[in-house]
Amino acid sequence: MPVGRRAIQRTAGFTLIEMLAVTGVMGILAAIAIPMVGNIVANFRITGDARTLLSNLSLARMHAAANFSRTRLYVDLSTNTYRTEIKTPTTAWTSLGQSVTLSGTDAFSFGSIATAPPNTQDTIGQASQCLDDASPPVAVDNTACVIFNSRGVPIDTANAPTAGYALYITDGGAVIGATVSATGAIRLWRTSATSTPAWVQQ
Predict the structure, then answer these.
(1) In sequence order, what E strands does 47-119 have?
(2) What is the pTM (predicted TM-score) of this model?
(3) How far apart (Å, rounded) are the C-alpha atoms in residues 67 and 61?
(4) Domains in the chain, start-ordered, CATH in brackets?
(5) Region 14-37: what's the mean pLDDT?
(6) Which end of the chain has fewer CB atoms at under 10 Å, N or C?
(7) Burial letters for 35-70: b for 16+ Cβ neighbours within 10 Å, e otherwise?
């Protein structure tokens, strides 16, 4: 093989036009992919928060039945945290473990959604305010509590069975509600936060 041809083969590479074309294609793909990845991450985050909330509500109900005492999920709406608390006839509300904080920009809210999931609440809203241990008890601002009696039945602050409990979280794009029926069954519902509610059970 001639020496000149061997030298040409060694120096062969991509032209400037080819490099610019590849860079342009990569830029277009990145512009399409980055928002999609962001939406996927946000969806995973709020879905994970909703599943964790569902698990903690179920655990609160089981603790109530197992310990023959009232148990509640205490939600601090101002800090987007919640914890499980238990109360016996002779003790004040006592925390069972540490508080859980919602991820990222997720918050306890239903945004502008005006209609509750079907066959759950008459009017959409977070669960009723928590009461402190004073005598008589006083409602705690910026809180919501789901209370279960010793049989795992949801009760209101007057200890009467209720079917109107719900907790809602949103990330601005979706709203997920965890509702508690009169029998204690807990369900998750989801709808878009930016359109007419179309609740779908999860």
Answers:
(1) 70-76, 81-87, 94-95, 100-101, 107-108
(2) 0.80
(3) 10
(4) 3-201 (3.55.40.10)
(5) 74
(6) N
(7) eeeeeeebeebbbebbeebbebbebbbebbbeeebb
